[in-house]
Write a structure and sequence with these properties.
This protein is mainly alpha-helical. The chain contains 6 helices and 3 strands. 61% of the residues lie in helices and 6% in strands.
Length: 142
């Protein structure tokens, strides 16, 4: 049998917390670990590779739900196609592009609010930022 790792050892090797590994296990991203005679969770090299896959997928922005789909494809590669994986990636790209547009809109609105404010030392009773946010008739996203 190959190397086995206790949860703390694996967490340390992968620079994550043991709670993260337990969470992945609870979410079904990582199969339930085997237990030692003393009740300690034991992980193998395959588990380590799976967590590395999860971490790399997270690093490029995939959600845990998307990662779960990718892992399902990875476990059944011969019955899936590259198209299946590419569709998940294309969907993620589309989501990110929409978020970028939204963030750019937020940024423009915040800059507009920021520039309209005098930023002086007087009380905020007449602060243009607060007045604009408080008045629904004033536009902040134009």
């Amino acid at each position: 049998m190959g190397s086995t790792f206790r949860i703390g050892e694996l967490a340390s090797q992968l620079n994550v917390s043991a709670d993260t590994l337990r969470y992945y296990e609870k979410q079904g991203l990582l199969s339930s670990s085997h237990r030692s005679a003393g009740g300690f969770r034991l992980f193998n090299q395959g588990d380590k590779c799976r967590v590395q896959f999860i971490l790399r997928a997270k690093a490029v922005g995939f959600s845990l739900s998307e990662i779960k789909s990718l892992l399902a494809i990875q476990l059944n590669k011969s019955k899936k196609s590259c198209r299946d994986v590419k569709e998940i990636t294309a969907s993620k790209i589309s989501d990110i592009e929409l978020r970028i547009v939204e963030l750019e809109r937020f940024l423009a609105a915040l800059k507009k609010l920021h520039q309209a404010c005098c930023g002086g030392p007087k009380s905020a009773n007449h602060c243009s930022i607060l007045q604009t946010l408080d008045d629904p008739s004033k536009s902040i996203t134009d």
